[in-house]
Specification:
5-stranded antiparallel β-sheet; 192 residues; globular; alpha+beta; single chain; 5 strands
């Protein structure tokens, strides 16, 4: 009950409410959040959805992470066309052209900005929500997800510790996806 109470209180935060508002974008449906695990074990939040075209087509759009020589690189995509994240409006129009949606370039651009906003808001909420789950799972134990530098004993580095961290990450992702499902549009249905 304590875990539900702490997490439920967190759901009324301003940041969570901003995430819910981002999920209500009129051009997005079926928003899904997930993790990309990169080479160093780094877990980064991704967001995908469907853009509902004027002709009734459901075109996948999203914000994801890829590995590059300089580290993690964010990219946006519409259909099979992709580009690095942070594009100006002209770059988004070019992405719409490569996806075969030139006639709807403004709507596609807004959908891409909306899915990037969903990812950004979710990432802002994720840390605090995950912390609430960790506090509930650990009880009175100190909470730290960072390993100690090599050469130092890590008594808390037990398999139980890492399983609780993984459980908190999964509960956080499930909560974010539940909120996106409840407050976002689904194909063929109106937004709540």
């Amino acid at each position: 009950m304590e875990m539900e109470s702490g997490v439920t209180d967190r759901l009324w935060d301003k940041d969570v409410q901003e995430f819910i508002i981002a999920c209500r974008h009129e051009k997005l449906s079926d928003i899904t959040l997930g993790y990309t695990v990169l080479g160093g074990g780094q877990m980064l939040l991704t967001a995908s959805a469907f853009y509902l075209s004027k002709r009734g087509r459901r075109v996948p759009v999203g914000y994801r992470w890829t590995e590059s020589k300089s580290g993690a690189a964010a990219e946006i995509f519409v259909g099979r066309a992709k580009a690095s994240a942070g594009q100006e409006l002209d770059g988004l129009f070019g992405l719409a052209l490569r996806a075969g949606l030139w006639g709807e370039r403004r709507h596609v651009a807004f959908a891409l900005m909306a899915v990037a906003d969903v990812q950004s808001k979710a990432d802002g909420v994720r840390g605090r929500l995950q912390f609430e789950y960790l506090k509930a799972l650990y009880g009175a134990e100190p909470v730290s997800v960072e390993p100690l530098p090599s050469g130092q004993d890590d008594p808390a580095g037990s398999p139980g510790r890492w399983s609780r961290i993984a459980q908190a990450q999964e509960l956080t992702l499930q909560t974010l996806n539940d909120l996106a499902y409840l407050y976002g549009a689904r194909a063929g249905k109106e937004t709540l």
